C-alpha cells in the first residue's frame, strides 16, 4: 500500500484538471494576447477561471490577479503593498510563525528601512488580539498574518484580527496568506476584512506553477512584474493559460460539495490524532475537529530523529514531511515549533502528516501499524 501524507507540500492533480491542462497545451494553445480566434479562446479560459475563483470568494473577477504561485503572491502583496504605501508609514506587523515566503520578503523590507514587529503565539499557534492591538502604531501600514499555519494547522481568527486592525486605522492593509486555507475553508474577504489574499494552485489538487493574489479594488499596490501590461497592468507576461484553467477547475471541484470534502478530511485527521495519541512517546501538536485545519497533523516522536523516521516510513511507501517543503531542502529548526513551546528535545523529532482528496482511512490504519512496528526498533537503534 502507498500512503501519500504530504499534501500540504503538494497534491496530485484531479483528473478533470489534468484533462483541461492537456487540452489547452495541445489543442487550444493560443496566446491570450493574440487578436485571432485562438488567442480569444485562450483569453476565454482565463476569464472563466477568474470568474470561478471570484465566485468562491464572493468578490469581483477583476480583483483576481494570476501569479506563478503562493510565493509570488506573498512577495507581491508584501513588497509592493509596502512600497506603494510607504509615504503613510514604514511599520509592518506579522507573526513569529509565518512561512518563508512571507518571512523573507519582510526581511528584505527591513533592509529597505521598514520596521517589522513579529507577534508571538500561544501554545496552540494563535496570536493574542491584545498583542496585535498594542503593536499597531500611527506609522503602521500593513499587517500580514497567515490563515492556516503550514506546519501544525493552527487557524488564526482572521475576522477578529481584521476588526482590531480596522478599528485602529481603516487604511492599514491586511494581507492573509491563505495558501493552506483556500479549498479547506469558506473564505469571504469582503466580510472578513481582508485586503490582500494569497493562494497557490498545487495545494488544492491543481497544477504547480500557478496561483493568484486577491487585491481588493480599493487597495493601493504596485506591480511586481512589468512588461506587456497583461492582467490590467498588475502582472505582465504571457499568462500561463493551462495552469490558470487548471486552477479554476480545481477551485470549482474543491468548492462543490465543500462541506462533505472538509468533513472527510477532518475525519481522517481526527482518526490519526486519536491513533497517534495511543502510542507511547508520541506528542500531537495539532488540535482535533474544527479547532485546527482539517488536513494537517503535527506529531513529535520522542527518541527518534524526524529525518530517520521519515526515511523509514518512505521505505514502507508512506510519505510525510519533516518541515515545509517550500522553504528548503536543508533541515532547520522550525520557528513554528519553537513558537508554540515544543520541548527542545522534540524539535528535531517532529513530522507533519497532511491529507488530500485521495487519502483513505485504510491508509491511516496502515501508517499507524507501521509506526507501531518501527518506533521501538528506531529508538533502540538511536540509543545504541
From TrEMBL:
E.C. no: 2.8.1.7
Gene Ontology MF terms in the entry: cysteine desulfurase activity; iron-sulfur cluster binding; metal ion binding
Gene3D superfamilies: 1.10.260.50, Aspartate Aminotransferase, domain 1, Type I PLP-dependent aspartate aminotransferase-like (Major domain)
InterPro entries: Aminotrans_V_dom, Aminotrans_V_PyrdxlP_BS, Cysteine_dSase, PyrdxlP-dep_Trfase, PyrdxlP-dep_Trfase_major, PyrdxlP-dep_Trfase_small
Top EC category: transferase
Keywords: Iron, Iron-sulfur, Metal-binding, Pyridoxal phosphate, Transferase
Keyword presence, Transferase: yes
Protein name: Cysteine desulfurase
Organism annotation: Lacrimispora saccharolytica (strain ATCC 35040 / DSM 2544 / NRCC 2533 / WM1) (Clostridium saccharolyticum)
